[in-house]
Amino acid sequence: MSLVANNITKVFGKGHTSVKAVNNVSLNILPGEVVLIMGPSGSGKTTLITILGGLLSPNEGSVVINHEDITKLKEDKLPSFRLENIGFIFQSFNILSALNATENVAVPLIARGISQKKATEAAQDFLKRLGLGERLNNRPSDLSGGEKQRVAIARALVTNPSIILADEPTANLDSKNGHEVMLKLCGVACEENKSVVIVSHDQRIKDIAHRVLWIEDGKLTKEEEGNHKKVCPHENLV
């Protein structure tokens, strides 16, 4: 399995003011699976995905990605592990305004020591796959919201991570762009057998999710099948 979380608990505060933002949560995410986590504001879903990505440590429990328990990794080992195994997509895009689309996507590859030439080639390949072949040299100020999010998706995918974590990826997009961006993300991820975990309020994402997990008061309360419309003709969950 790509990602296994066991009995995760995260507490903020102390004593009578403490709050369990995540309360004894366990889940398994299969390779090639798209899982949507839904819940009201303050339910703990963003805290959960932050823990799954190794950006926040739980008080209890474990998170195993590709047979490595990231809760036991030393602080100085976590950044390189995340860079190699996890791709992050944020609602605010988090792309650099001074760089063009290609340069933004190439950044994580260059950080891994890949040559400028190879990083540029890989970045442009992913941008083309996501429908941005005519925007390779455009800076963020010249891109629409949907195009910026596709640049962010290309950046998340370019390092070939096994896990993609997306926090409210359609929050700043209109209906049409949001749906198109999610189809692009899940299509590429499915082709390459990557796991995708999406935290969102957007009910439409159910159409591309295999499973929907509901979280409330830090606990997983319900699981249901998504209305998964096949975005990959050779889908094979294992």
Rg for CA atoms: 18 Å
Instruction: Report, as a whole number of angstroms, the end-to-end distance.
Output: 8 Å
User: Helices and strands: which structural class?
Assistant: alpha/beta
Corresponding CATH architecture: 3-Layer(aba) Sandwich
CATH fold assignment? Rossmann fold
Query: What is the overall pLDDT average?
Result: 90
How much of the sequence lies in strands comes to 25-35%
The helix content, as a percent range, equals 25-40%
Number of domains: 1
Count of distinct strands: 10
Q: What strand line-up does the widest sheet have?
A: 6-7-8-3-9-10
The helix/strand order is EEEHEEHEHHHEHEEE
Q: Please, could you describe this protein's structure?
A:
- A six-stranded mixed β-sheet has the order 6-7-8-3-9-10, sandwiched between helices.
- α5 (145-157) runs parallel beside α6.
- It has helices spanning 45-52, 78-85, 101-111, 116-129, 145-157, 175-191; strands at 3-12, 19-29, 34-38, 60-65, 68-69, 86-90, 163-167, 195-199, 211-216, 219-225.
- The chain is 30% helix and 26% strand.
- It is an alpha/beta fold and 238 residues long.
- The longest helix is centred in the last third of the chain and has 17 residues, at 175-191.
- The model has no long low-confidence stretch (mean pLDDT 90).
- A hairpin with a 2-residue loop joins β4 and β5.
Please describe the topology of this protein.
Elements lengths: L2 E10 L6 E11 L4 E5 L6 H8 L7 E6 L2 E2 L8 H8 E5 L10 H11 L4 H14 L15 H13 L5 E5 L7 H17 L3 E5 L11 E6 L2 E7 L13
Parallel strand pairs: 3-8, 3-9, 6-7, 7-8
Antiparallel strand pairs: 1-2, 1-4, 4-5, 9-10
Helix pairs in contact: 3-4, 3-5, 5-6
